[in-house]
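Entry details:
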Amino acid sequence: MSYEWSATGVWDALLIDLLLEAGWDADAAMALTAQGRIDAAREAAQDGRLSDASVDALRKVGILVG
């Protein structure tokens, strides 16, 4: 296991956590590409499957516009 900070790994973990909140299966969420996770998180936000706090967080980091 690496102890170096990895931006990609952190973002992936956060997006996977959001997808789990939206009802995704963990294996399916992990099988997505990084862009696939972003797209799925956007779709989940638009469909109302994420909490308001999660949607706000996605807006703050620039994944959602508005």
Q: What stands out?
A: The chain has a mean pLDDT of 88. The first helix runs from residue 7 to 21. The two ends are 38 Å apart (CA to CA). The chain is about 65% helix and 0% strand.
